[in-house]
Structure formats: structure tokens, C-alpha cells
Write a structure and sequence with these properties.
Layout: H1 13-17, H2 24-36, E1 41-47, E2 58-59, H3 63-70, E3 75-79, E4 85-86, E5 93-98, H4 99-102, H5 106-130, E6 134-137, H6 148-157, E7 162-163, H7 166-171, H8 182-188, H9 191-201, E8 208-211, H10 218-229, E9 233-238, H11 242-245, H12 248-261, E10 268-272, H13 277-283, E11 289-292, H14 294-297, E12 305-311, E13 314-315, E14 326-331, E15 337-341, E16 355-357, E17 360-364, E18 367-368, H15 375-386
Parallel strand pairs: 6-7, 6-11, 8-9, 9-10, 10-11
Antiparallel strand pairs: 1-5, 1-12, 2-4, 3-5, 3-17, 12-13, 14-15, 14-16, 17-18
Length: 403
């Protein structure tokens, strides 16, 4: 289909796979080198020099899509496992092959990693701040709908307990999660009546959660819906707009007090609307679960760069970059990580623990050579690492870099 006749302004799978999503200077470079008959084999690595604000670590995501992008090309690729926590200057991926065979894929490769990793990292930060409380991804509506499954898949990989979009839920093989919209309350005309309609129509396996900030004061709406549904009411959700919010925590504390006073201790509180990891940390004493939207969907991208480090087996790099192939080794005991020249033994960690190589073969000669785990397995890997990962919940400068 011609670009002018497309319904949506997105690239098709076949176009991405063909290397057509490409900065023009790569296309021209390939044209020039092909004209010169230049078939040099190069090695390049992908890493970040810095992370946003006070982030100490990132979560690598997008590896599965990178494998799909490069599969069939005459390249060898090593990469960290998807879901690995990494720091600046630690290569997360290495690609080797004749440069003109893969140069035009750099733009798409970086795009796949940068956005997915940013979303996964923000989700991980929110989940780390929330602890055992649920975090649900609500933010797909903030981005192009073609990206919704990617956004929510990586939010889930990063630690979110559920996603809202039906198509995204299919991708992670889970049921979508959500409550009711303000629109239902407005159309029905009353919060309690809207909840009763939900209770009457929707499958009983779906938890009954009342949205209580549409028309009246949250405290009184919470009491009304709790009295209406009794033990069938699982939670109330407060999405109080900022123009009416004041001190959100005090509003939540007031609702909690009034519900408990009337014997509705079983009713949980869910907070949404402008929530991020900093707000989560402040609300944790009173909130049971969170809906996080824009903060995750519009997460800062991680600024991965791809740099040549070797040409025809000779270490070479542009100014400011370290040349040569590298290994990234992490101690299985203390989690300390070192970057060393590839193939050189680093010895045991000073703590006495065993170091493992994080860069592992992903493609050999264009063939995927390792299993790519499903999203749920990646999420479990992320959560295991989060147990020891540091997180600042106040906006301060960068601190220690160990996990």
C-alpha cells in the first residue's frame, strides 16, 4: 500500500524488517561502501553513557524484537538477557559482521531498545517503590495505538502486575485489568447505579472496583458504594483530578477512616492519576494498589548508542569510546559488575563470588541460537533483581551505583 493511502502513520513489519526505517546517512554510507567494494567486517556495541535524572540502573528490554529484526542477516550478535539490570558504560549488545550487510538496521535496532527499555525501567521503578502492592499499567491511551501492545508488554516485563489494553493482554497471555471509566458513571448518572450495572452484567470473576471521584465527594461515594455492594466490593479507586485534589494522601486517609469505621476494612484503596514512583512512596502507608499511566507510557527513552569498536579484528573506536571487544561480568554473590577485554579472565570477585558473563550469543550467522523466554519469565527475572536494587524515592542527584 502506498504511504499516502495508509490509514495510520506507522511502518509495516515488512518495511522494518527490510531495513527501510533507516536514517538516510546510513543508506548513503551503504551506497558509498558498496560502490567502493568495501566489505570490511566490523564489531560494534550498544550501551548508554548516562541514565535519566536519579536513575541508577536500567532494565534491558526489546531483545526479542532485535532478534526478529536481525534474524536472517549474516551477523553474529551477543546480548544480555532481556530483563537484565545494567548501568552506564556496560555494553548490553554486540553485533559483528560485514558492515554494509547490517548498517541500515542501526536506526531500527536502537529504537527497539531505547523505548522498550525506558518503559520497562520506569515500570520497575514503580514496582520497586510499591513493594507488594499491585501496579497496573493504565497508560496506553497516551501513545499511538499501534504502540499499545509494545508499551504494555514492556510495562509488564518491568514489573507491572497487569495491563489494561485487551490486545496487549493477549501478548502477555493474561487477562486485562481495569475498573470502570468516568464515562459509565456520567452516562448512567450515579456512581452506585453504575456499579450495580457493572455487578449485574460483568463476569463475577472480575473484581468489583468502584470509581468514586466522578460526581461527589470521595468519602461519601466510598460509603455509598460499600453499603450498596457489601462484601462483593473489592476496592474503590480514586482518580481525583489535580484541580480538586489538595493533599491526595489526606483524602485517601479520610476515605480509609470512614470505611473502617463502618466495618468495611476489606475494601481496598486504589490510587491513579499522575502517579509515579515518587508519589507511590508517599502514598504507600494508605494505598493498596496503583494504576500508573503516563509516567510509564511516556517514560524517558534510554539513550543507547551503537559504536564501532573493531574493524577487521583491529581495535578501533571514535574519540571518547573504548575500542575492542568486551565482556561484561557480574558476580553472582555481591552483584558487582566489571567490563573487561573480551576473552581475558577477570578472576574471582574480591568478595569470593563467581562471575558470570552477561553478554551471551543471541544470533550466529543470522540464526537465533538461544531460547527467548516469554514475558512472564522475564518479569520474574526482573523482580528477582529488584529485591537488591537501590531506589531513591526523593528527587536527588545520582548516588551509589551498585546492586
Amino acid at each position: 500500500m502506498a504511504a499516502s493511502k495508509r490509514l495510520f502513520h506507522t511502518a509495516a513489519d515488512a518495511e522494518i524488517k527490510a531495513g527501510e526505517v533507516c536514517d538516510v546517512y546510513f543508506a548513503r554510507t551503504v551506497q558509498i561502501l558498496t560502490h567502493r567494494g568495501d566489505r570490511k567486517r566490523v564489531r560494534a556495541e550498544v550501551y548508554v553513557k548516562s541514565l535519566p535524572a536519579d536513575w541508577r540502573w536500567g532494565v534491558l528490554a526489546g531483545v526479542e524484537e532485535v532478534a526478529a529484526l536481525l534474524e536472517g542477516l549474516p551477523v553474529d550478535v551477543r546480548a544480555m538477557d532481556e530483563g537484565t539490570l545494567f548501568e552506564p558504560y556496560q555494553p548490553v549488545l554486540e553485533i559483528a559482521g560485514v558492515y554494509v550487510d547490517w548498517a541500515q538496521y542501526e536506526t531500527a535496532l536502537l529504537g527497539l531498545l531505547c523505548q522498550a527499555s525506558g518503559i520497562a525501567t520506569k515500570a520497575a521503578r514503580c514496582k520497586k517503590a510499591a513493594g507488594d502492592r499491585q501496579v497496573i499499567s493504565f497508560g496506553a491511551r497516551r501513545m499511538h495505538p499501534a504502540l499499545a501492545p509494545m508499551i504494555e508488554r514492556n510495562a509488564f516485563v518491568g514489573g507491572c502486575d497487569g495491563v489494561a489494553v485487551t490486545k496487549a493482554a493477549e501478548l502477555i497471555e493474561a487477562d486485562p485489568m481495569g475498573t470502570i471509566p468516568h464515562a459509565l458513571v456520567l452516562v448512567v448518572g450515579d456512581t452506585v447505579e453504575a456499579l450495580r450495572a457493572f455487578h449485574e452484567v460483568i463476569d463475577p470473576k472480575v473484581r468489583r472496583v468502584a470509581l468514586i471521584d466522578t460526581l461527589q465527594d470521595e468519602k461519601f461515594e466510598a460509603i455509598r458504594v460499600a453499603e450498596a455492594l457489601g462484601r462483593d466490593l473489592y476496592a474503590v479507586r480514586l482518580d481525583t483530578p489535580s484541580s480538586r485534589r489538595g493533599d491526595f494522601r489526606r483524602i485517601l486517609e479520610e476515605v480509609r477512616w470512614e470505611l473502617d469505621l463502618r466495618g468495611f476494612e476489606h475494601v481496598k484503596l486504589i490510587a491513579s492519576g499522575g502517579i509515579d514512583e515518587y508519589e507511590i512512596a508517599r502514598l504507600n502507608p494508605v494505598v493498596d494498589a496503583y494504576g500508573v499511566g503516563t509516567a510509564i507510557a511516556n517514560a524517558p527513552v534510554l539513550n543507547f548508542a551503537l559504536d564501532i569498536t573493531e574493524i577487521e579484528g583491529r581495535p578501533v573506536a571514535k574519540r571518547g569510546k573504548w575500542s575492542g571487544a568486551k565482556d561484561v561480568l557480574r558476580c553472582q554473590a555481591c552483584r558487582a559488575t566489571v567490563v573487561v577485554p573480551a576473552g581475558r579472565p577477570a578472576g574471582p570477585c574480591p568478595c569470593g563470588g563467581t562471575r558470570e558473563a552477561l553478554l551471551k550469543p543471541l544470533l550466529e550467522g543470522g540464526r537465533v541460537v538461544r531460547d527467548l523466554p516469554p514475558p512472564r519469565t522475564i518479569r520474574e527475572y526482573v523482580l528477582e533483581q529488584l529485591r537488591t536494587a537501590p531506589l531513591d524515592t526523593e528527587r536527588r542527584g545520582e548516588g551509589r551505583r551498585d546492586f
